[in-house]
Amino acid sequence: MASAEECRDDVVMFRSDAGMARFRVELADDKAERAKGLMHRKTLSQSAGMLFVYPQPQRVGFWMKNTLIPLDMIFLDETGVVRKVHSDARPLDETPIMGGNDIFAVLEINGGLARKIGIAEGWQMRHPSFAQGTAAWPCDG
């Protein structure tokens, strides 16, 4: 079980009946940071990712323009529940990757890693960006 001290801006935790996972993250929670994302980076640690957080749930789409590494995109609702996983987004591809409606946060990690770990729809993420009163896995729970 994760301790409350692990519930901080630079860490996300995932859980389901199938297991748990932990990633160190960079937070992209303003328009400029979300626009830049992981562009132009040549590597990403296996235990790292970037968490994109929006001011309110919305229709969210990504592309891989200027992104040099394959990525998995994990789309979450405002309670921190995984709603969609897009695996192995191709570097430099400008095809839109839509996450759906009512998406509040997106975690990008190395391509293929979500499948390897088993992260899928229904998994829960713990992070202080989610309203703790309605989070599926609150920081104090």
Radius of gyration: 14 Å
- CATH names the topology as Jelly Rolls
Query: Helicity, in percent?
Result: under 10%
Oligomer: single chain
Q: Mean of the pLDDT scores?
A: 95
Model description:
The chain has helices spanning 31-36, 113-117, and strands spanning 11-16, 19-28, 48-62, 71-76, 82-89, 97-110, 124-126. The protein has 141 residues and is mainly beta. The protein has 2 helices and 7 strands, in the order E-E-H-E-E-E-E-H-E. The mean pLDDT is 95. It has one domain (4-126): Protein of unknown function DUF192 (Jelly Rolls, Sandwich), CATH 2.60.120.
Write a short abstract of this structure.
This protein is mainly beta. It has helices spanning 31-36, 113-117; strands spanning 11-16, 19-28, 48-62, 71-76, 82-89, 97-110, 124-126.
Features:
single chain, 141 residues, mainly beta, Jelly Rolls, seven-stranded mixed sheet, 2 helices, 7 strands
Please write out the topology.
Layout: E1 11-16, E2 19-28, H1 31-36, E3 48-62, E4 71-76, E5 82-89, E6 97-110, H2 113-117, E7 124-126
Parallel strand pairs: 2-3
Antiparallel strand pairs: 1-2, 1-7, 3-6, 4-5, 4-6
